Hints:
By secondary structure, the first copy, chain A, is an alpha/beta fold. Chain A folds into three domains: 6-44, lambda repressor-like DNA-binding domains (434 Repressor (Amino-terminal Domain), Orthogonal Bundle); 53-163 and 300-328, 3-Layer(aba) Sandwich (Rossmann fold), CATH 3.40.50; 165-298, Response regulator (Rossmann fold, 3-Layer(aba) Sandwich), CATH 3.40.50. Chain A has helices at residues 6-13, 17-24, 32-45, 51-57, 75-90, 104-116, 135-142, 165-178, 194-208, 226-238, 254-266, 284-288, 300-316, and strands spanning 64-69, 94-99, 122-124, 147-149, 159-163, 184-188, 219-221, 247-251, 275-278, 295-297, 325-328, 331-333. In chain A, the strands form three sheets. A six-stranded parallel beta sheet of chain A has the order 2-1-3-4-5-11, with helices on both faces. In chain A, strands 7-6-8-9 form a four-stranded parallel beta sheet, sandwiched between helices. A two-stranded antiparallel ribbon of chain A has the order 10-12. In chain A, strand 1 (64-69), helix 5 and strand 2 form a beta-alpha-beta unit. In chain A, helix 1 packs across helix 3 (32-45) and helix 10 crosses helix 11. Chain A is elongated, with a radius of gyration of 26 Å. The interface between A and B is large, with 61 and 61 residues. Chain A binds a DNA duplex through residues 3, 5-7, 15-22, 24-25, 29-31, 34, 49-50, 52-59.
Amino acid sequence: MKKTTINDVAERAGVSKATVSAVINGKPTVKASTRERVLSIMKELNFRPKGQARNLKRTFIDKSIGLLIRELDNPFYTSLAVGVKKYANQHNYTVFISSSECNHQNEEKITKLLVAKDIKGTIIAPVMNGTVEIDHLFRLKMLNFPFVLLEEVPGIQANVVSINNIDAIKKAVKFLVDLGHKRIIHFSGPEYASHAYERLKGFRQAFSESPLIYSDDLIIPCGSHFHDGLNKGLDYFGKKENQKFPMAVVCYNDVVALGLISALQKLNIRVPEDVSIIGNDDIEFARHWSPALTTISTPIEELGRKAAEILIHNIEAKERLKVKKLVLEAQLIIRETTCAVKK
Amino acid sequence: MKKTTINDVAERAGVSKATVSAVINGKPTVKASTRERVLSIMKELNFRPKGQARNLKRTFIDKSIGLLIRELDNPFYTSLAVGVKKYANQHNYTVFISSSECNHQNEEKITKLLVAKDIKGTIIAPVMNGTVEIDHLFRLKMLNFPFVLLEEVPGIQANVVSINNIDAIKKAVKFLVDLGHKRIIHFSGPEYASHAYERLKGFRQAFSESPLIYSDDLIIPCGSHFHDGLNKGLDYFGKKENQKFPMAVVCYNDVVALGLISALQKLNIRVPEDVSIIGNDDIEFARHWSPALTTISTPIEELGRKAAEILIHNIEAKERLKVKKLVLEAQLIIRETTCAVKK
DNA sequence: GTGAAAGCGCTAACAA
DNA sequence: TTGTTAGCGCTTTCAC
């Protein structure tokens, strides 16, 4: 059972394949009646000409890059995509976004597809759940397929554009300490994301640089979605023994923080009087929430733009370029969900 | 100035191209020293083997579909993408998302690329700014390239999965009328979206079925983003002559509605006592906003899933399938941003 | 282990 | 207006 090819169509229509090709490509040299006949045979046989074969001979210069993200429904990646797209479009590149949904198999499959389809390069937010698998990245390197990582992956020399998450969290904790907070906890992100790991690490480091004492039960495993923040919030603060106000929560990201705020509202716990909250990412909704969210502003769009810039440089360079590493700094944005502890 | 090919590598390395091919594909039959030599030449020449050519001979069955949306940073499309992805992944398809940013040229370019790359089919949210251009859709039909539209496009017979927007808005207006509202206006969407047009049409129709009298100045052209709702809200309600409370606003979508709420809060206008607000789409944030948004719930994920289902059916069918049209119904979700007019 | 040669499905001259 | 022919850049036998 073979796929129908141009030959099948040609034979059936009683013309040469060159004529069929001319029809496919809308060449004006074909007689109307022949065209009609060929078209109807194409239809009848449900013939789908193979793009790969067509572009082998043609010199159809296509400019396209991939953006491999980890989660579709995370505003972080939306902003990132916007940044990538802005730079890419300025340089006439089309962006194809695909999500691994934090599954390594998917990541591998997608990179393979990008290569197979001759997408010119890709930006990757790598999945890192414990065991780091990098065979597919090595394959990309072997094939000289340009790519930029959005997180450092141990064991591979590659272009990386990332955010200084450790420092970001440290700023947040220091701010809370300066406000007089003594009970500071962390709603942490999903394990597979090294963002989460770095933020956690920053949280711990911040403690070591403050008068506070770190202990593991200050870390509340949460997740990355609104409902994660909401549910964990209801769960944690629903327990009387955890209601030792005032306290402060540093959240993995803004969406979680907003979920947590909603949880606290449901529990009639005041923000920020009882609980101060700090998010992470500064998504558009953060500043418009009520109360407006104090958060760490990450230059996400900039991150995307820089990644696209490096990627496209690599794509267009004749020779292999030196690996580039870029770390963007984050900034604490103080709004309404944090306040000083009353003496 | 030609691209380097496998022949260049072979020649330079003093081996046949079959050997280079074996190296590229990680065949274990190659002697280690040869492999090393070939690899280093590949590196030196920055050789990127062409996926198109590789897959011409190989039978690499790839399952991939495109999703061509109109705006990257619109939660509507995020939910849609989630729905598409869920169905697609169940059937082992990878989804590539690309956005036209409401520009017809982009839409055309992207469809062309999808075909060129042998993506197996695509879902399209068509750009419709006044002059409807459908040449590229006709091309897809000619090439028997499977696609599903997310809106009816006049002039083309194609699969369509859409939302009954007209009815949705009518439900909203009727609800407000029943609450005793007399001053009902519409913050309308961008002109290019036929969603916007349909919602407007529904708004008008609803008036004709009520005691109210329609007039064009009830339509406030707004847009589709948070800042559109915010700015237009400040603009419109900032004017004393427009402050004839109570009144009600039906918004193009939820994001606009949330922006409008923020504007009213800044202006110290009460929601819903002074102004009742109804959104459209029921994005996740809508129910969590403060006050929670009354809105029209559109089964967006379902929309995506259905579109993917029809698309994949068409991809896998041997013969051409009959065109399918599906209209999903919307539902009014009453929350906190609407209330009855006090007698 | 490696190379020669045949082709994957199409396009692009050029002839007819 | 249409057919013939020679590739596009790779993979894949199969012989050496």
